[in-house]
Design goal:
mainly beta, globular, Glutamine Phosphoribosylpyrophosphate, subunit 1, domain 1, five-stranded antiparallel sheet
């Protein structure tokens, strides 16, 4: 199990990342999502609250050149399930849930992003809770070693999360041209009780030039009460 700051520091461009886990006390489900950007268009964003979830929004609308792939709802809530993704597949998963269908079924209708030569992976996660119990799942949809004609879909299930432990998955292994996709299983990381300290550590772990926004939420597993923190580089 790694400390998230030790894992992320020094990686100039892990891209977008999802972290799901359980607090050290076992009393909270923990969700984090961050975005980064290399272009002016990608960096011209902020997170804003939208109902129980969030959406991305142009910080300066006059500088927004192409909203496709960068304006979406990263977080939505369906009943006692929080959905978090790096694209519009959030809405696909939500729509499938509303029809009584599954996380996997929703993502089997999707593929990686159409942004050759990077073929950016679509990463997704859900966290479910019910009276002091929780579970979560993660997924990555990626090209086969950069081959845009072949998609690979991976699903990771955590039905009985360990207190103090979480799993992090992100879009890119590191910076590059084209940017190499994340490989392997989600990374096991430590998850503390202190949301403020955890948010600060995550934010400071991301590359100062490329980081854009961070969302962190702790869900009380007994009551369902949510405590949310949003950090935007653009203010």
């Amino acid at each position: 199990m790694k400390q998230v700051n030790e894992y992320l520091q020094g990686n100039q461009y892990p891209g977008r990342g999802i972290l799901l886990g359980r607090s050290a006390s076992g009393k909270s489900g923990v969700i984090a999502y961050f975005i980064m950007g290399r272009s002016e268009n990608s960096r011209n964003r902020i997170f804003v609250e939208d109902g129980q979830g969030i959406r991305t929004e142009a910080f300066d609308p006059a500088k927004m050149t192409d909203p496709d792939l960068i304006i979406y709802h990263p977080v939505r809530v369906f009943d006692r399930t929080t959905i978090v993704t790096n694209g519009d597949q959030t809405d696909t998963i939500y729509d499938f849930f509303s029809k009584g269908k599954s996380f996997q079924a929703a993502l089997r209708t999707r593929t990686f992003e159409p942004d050759e030569p990077n073929n950016t992976p679509r990463i997704s996660g859900i966290l479910k809770w019910k009276k002091n119990k929780m579970s979560y799942r993660l997924s990555i949809l990626k090209s086969a070693e950069g081959n845009s004609k072949s998609v690979q879909r991976f699903f990771f299930e955590y039905p009985k999360p360990i207190a103090g432990q979480g799993h992090l998955i992100h879009t890119y292994r590191c910076d590059g041209s084209p940017i190499p996709s994340f490989e392997g299983e989600p990374v096991t990381v430590a998850v503390p009780n202190d949301m403020e300290a955890f948010t600060k550590m995550l934010w400071e772990s991301l590359d100062a030039e490329n980081k854009v926004s961070l969302f962190v939420r702790y869900i009380d597993l007994e009551t369902g009460d949510c405590h949310t923190k949003i950090v935007n580089k653009n203010k």
